[in-house]
What we know:
- By secondary structure, the chain is α+β, with helices and mostly antiparallel strands.
- The protein folds into 3 domains: 41-74 and 85-270, Thrombin, subunit H; 272-363, PDZ domain (Pdz3 Domain); 382-467, Pdz3 Domain, CATH 2.30.42.10.
- Helices cover 22% and strands 37% of the residues.
- The chain is built from 11 helices and 27 strands.
- It has helices at residues 3-16, 22-31, 39-55, 113-116, 253-266, 283-289, 305-309, 328-336, 389-395, 410-414, 433-445; strands at residues 59-70, 87-103, 106-111, 121-127, 130-140, 145-151, 164-165, 176-181, 189-200, 210-213, 225-228, 232-240, 248-252, 272-273, 276-280, 295-300, 316-320, 323-324, 343-350, 353-360, 362-363, 382-386, 400-405, 421-425, 428-429, 450-457, 460-467.
- The strands form 5 sheets. The chain has a 6-stranded antiparallel β-barrel. A 6-stranded antiparallel beta barrel has the order 8-9-10-13-12-11.
- Strand 26 (450-457) and strand 27 form a beta hairpin.
- The longest helix has 17 residues, at 39-55.
- The radius of gyration is 30 Å and the shape is globular.
- Residues 263-352, 368-458 form the PDZ domain.
- The active site is at residues 114, 144, 222.
Amino acid sequence: MTLFMAFLLFTLSIVGCKAKPVSEEIFRQSQSSPPFQGKVLEEFEKELTELVETVSPSVVTIFATQEVKVSPFDEDFPFPVPFPFQIPQERRSLGSGVIIGMHGDKFYILTNNHVVQNAKKLRVKLDEHTEREARIVGTDPKTDIAVIEVSAKGIENPQSRIARLGDSDKLKVGQLVIAIGNPYGLERTVTFGVISALKRSIGILQYESFIQTDAPINPGNSGGPLVNIRGEVIGINTAILAEGQGLGFAVPINLAKWVASQLIEKGKVQRGYIGVVIQDVTPDIAETIGVKEGAIIAQVAPNSPAQKAGLQIGDVIVAVDGQPVKDVRDLQMRIMRTTPGTEVVLKVIRQGKELQVKVSVGEMPEEKETARASEEGGDLGLALRDLTPTEQARLGVRGVLVTGVTPGGLAYQSGLRPGDIILSVNNANISSVDDFKQAIEKAKSTGKDKVLLLVRRGDSNMYVVLNLR
């Protein structure tokens, strides 16, 4: 080979070689950096993703369709409407649920009462490709728990869809939890946090002992599971505080299971009852009576199990069957879950002396309730009953008692809470649920979207503006 040919080949070889991109060189250097040996975190992350993959198939989306009637004329309509005119419209709400078991070819799903109440149609989305009609098995507004059923036919390996339920009585503040649900329709969204507090009461239900968590939940999460790090459902996500950040509340699974078992077996919840009005032992009361914990009796109902057993106003109940009673909620939950006909032994402090009182627990009387204030209007999320003659005499007022307020509903947003007594609507006195309903209908027939309520809360009266739509 001549010197010229050798030079030509060398030149062509240089021209044929392309320089590597700068970015490739930079990223090559980044890969050469030593990796962080976070074995514990990697294992935690792996287990967390496996946990979510295991639990997620049990979480469903619930679509509830309600029929509401609305006026086509708003406040800006230029002409007076001589007669009420409303047109029916369908309203679709969304929530979550968790499959807790099977019977035959049916899945049983645990969810919130406020997700399914008053639904004309109910559909459940089991997965991306399966959506079916569902039926309500039973609802309980007092704890905001409901059970629905849906066909499991054609579902591959249906047993794998059933969630494992834990023991909420063993929970501790600080434990890690995961919330799974459908916030704003974003299916099977997973959020992570800790248990912030236990046995919380926020004044939206008649029976409350919420698990408080900072795992973010939003509208649409209602009815979905709160899960521990073992993949066990330990709560049913129920409520948020609109004015709070990172505050979610779940019904403990043990309470939800107790309610669900009765709804499945009986179609309703049978509660224990002894017939007393009780209040917490406040520091001032404790200083006066020398008892720090328990529930003090403020009233004994006539012909009630409590009266027959000899309980008296001023008695402080400090234990049930040897188990200490810390406060009103503690006693309330224990008696509620006692089977009617069961005899319990109450440890009572009366004028400084300790007594053992045997009480045969009765069944809580049915209350006259309405889950919506008006048969014609939209759902206010309000449960009411008439005051009894005894209550009217004791309180010195006539009105209707608020026994339940649906979380996030119109009544809740307006500020009404269980225990409130509604005395008047638009300055017209009321004395029954029928009076209340008629007043609401009258307001709606004239195109009003709000009414002014006079409410007794505790020992004080206050005005509340109730939004009707």
